Amino acid sequence: MAKILIVDDEKKIRHILAIMLARKGHDISQAGNGKDALELLEQNAFDVVISDIRMPEMDGFQLLENIRNMEIPVPVIVITAFGTIESAVEAMKKGAVDYITKPFEEDRIILAVEKATGVSKILRENLKLKKELQRLSGKGEIVCVSKAMKKVLEMASRVSEKPDTTVLITGESGTGKEIVARFIHQQSPRAKNRFVAVNCAAITDTLVQSTLFGHEKGAFTGAEKTKKGLFEYAAGGTLFLDEIGDLPLEAQAKLLRALQEKTIQRVGGNETIEVDVRVICATNQDLEKLASRGDFRQDLFYRINVFPIHIPPLRQRKDAIIPLAEYFIKKFVDSEPDTSGQLLTQGAQKILMNYSWPGNIRELANTMERAIILSGFPPITAQHLEFLKTGTEAAKQSGTFKLTEDGINLEELEKDLIKQALLITGNNQSAAARLLGLTRSKFRTRVKQLEEGS
Questions:
Q1: Which of 291, 312, 333 is the last residue of a domain?
Q2: What is the distance between the alpha carbons of residues 269 and 228, in angstroms, rounded to a whole number?
């Protein structure tokens, strides 16, 4: 018997699934949206989650992201009436173990749940092992091979001993800011408590204050019950605010107060709640410049910039490129019997060293995964990295895009560039917008226009 949480805004669908699974002896709980589901997941241990994608307030993708960020060891089966290849890929990227389109057959659901319950046990064992390894090594997934990164870790180690000091980690998208933040948490006296990560750019302006500080019942339309925010959820631990530069000004004022007074007020509430949490912020923007333009509060900048740590881009620490590439190769073929031989040919190493890595370590990891798929098994050759010579890099080398007599489809070219930017930045829309020289709002508008056009 498994303990299963069904998440869908359609009561009828929840009821049908509950009947199907209860017949098999499973213990069923239900939630009408992602927010209620998260609340149940915080309070109970579930073996499987079955979630719809399209839901109000928090959709299935956001739920998947929150489950991953909060390190809740539960497999998620996604169901949807609007099945596309793109949404299936997106769901799997965010951690879903299965993807089922409506209308669904009972046998398909039962089989998916049986498989997921097996995954559930593995996830719990893996999380337990991961925490133990991190406790022993204190380094998580950091591969420290360059002088620059050794300096970063030295600074991170120093500040980890001061559990109340606010830290600001700066660096381009994909440089590993969250990994360094986790390292600080794991080394600190707060390590026994939660590390909670949130991407400020991914939260809508209307929900950002509720997400961070919580809300009282009736505070706004849809607030049917009192909900704790991430400040309370991270009590005693660390709250990591990624993309802090995208936080709305009104929320910045409340964050400043929370940092200065160690207290918060939920949206719609009057009670002052004390909070004990270390805040680590990260950004790939120039906050000082944003503050001078009035787009970021200057007083908040000074408050979070108590202990700054800058992570240099990969192109400025070339001594790390090959060791990191070899680390990722071993990681992606760790199920194979032997990776002790040559992993990269000289030609492949030359391509990697000459590439500019606009997406930094994240792009390098994606590149190595793609190269392993193309090669089947090491060594990776120059031929397996030919794709690095195309697209934006080729455009840089030639100085401009070449227009032939056959012409081009400008809309398709734009779509391709947007896809490349999202791939390089790991689907971070703010970072992708900056790569293309657009504001976040203009980028989102253009993506929406292109989607509607197709």
A1: 312
A2: 12
What's the domain count of the chain?
A: 4
Question: Quick check: bond before 189 cis, omega within 30?
Answer: no
Q: Check whether residue 287 and residue 320 sit in a common domain.
A: no
Dihedral pair phi/psi, residue 80, rounded to 5°: -155, 150
Which residue has tokens 């049986």? 114
Distances in whole angstroms, Cα of residue 112 to Cα of each of 7, 19, 108, 117? 16, 16, 6, 9
Condensed to tens digits (0 to 9), the pLDDT of residues 61-116 reads 889 888 888 878 899 999 988 767 777 777 877 788 888 888 888 999 999 999 88
Question: Do 117 and 54 reside in the same domain of the chain?
Answer: yes
Amino acid 224: pLDDT: 81
Q: Which of 81, 70, 79 is nearest to 98 (CA)?
A: 79
Bridge partners of 238, per DSSP, are 195, 278
Among 334, 347, 337, 340, CA closest to 380: 347
Structure tokens at 132: 């133990």
What residues contact residue 326 under an 8 Å CB cut-off, 6+ apart?
343, 344
Collect all residues with Cβ–Cβ distance below 8 Å to 318 and sequence separation of at least 6: 353
What pTM value is reported for the model?
Answer: 0.60
Residue 382: CATH number of its domain? 1.10.8.60
Do 154 and 279 have their domain in common?
yes
Q: Which candidate, 153, 149, 161, places its Cα nearest to that of 183?
A: 153
- Would you mind telling me the total number of residues written for the chain in this entry? 454
Contact between residue 211 and residue 247 where contact means Cβ atoms under 8 Å apart:
no
**Where do we find the tokens 């997934």?**
141
- In sequence order, which ranges of 269-320 are alpha helices (DSSP H)? 287-293, 298-304
Q: Where are the strands (E) in 249-312, listed by range? A: 263-264, 273-274, 278-283, 307-310
Residues 336 and 354 grouped into a single domain: yes
How does DSSP classify residue 94? T
Q: What's the CA gap between 237 and 188, in Å, rounded?
A: 9
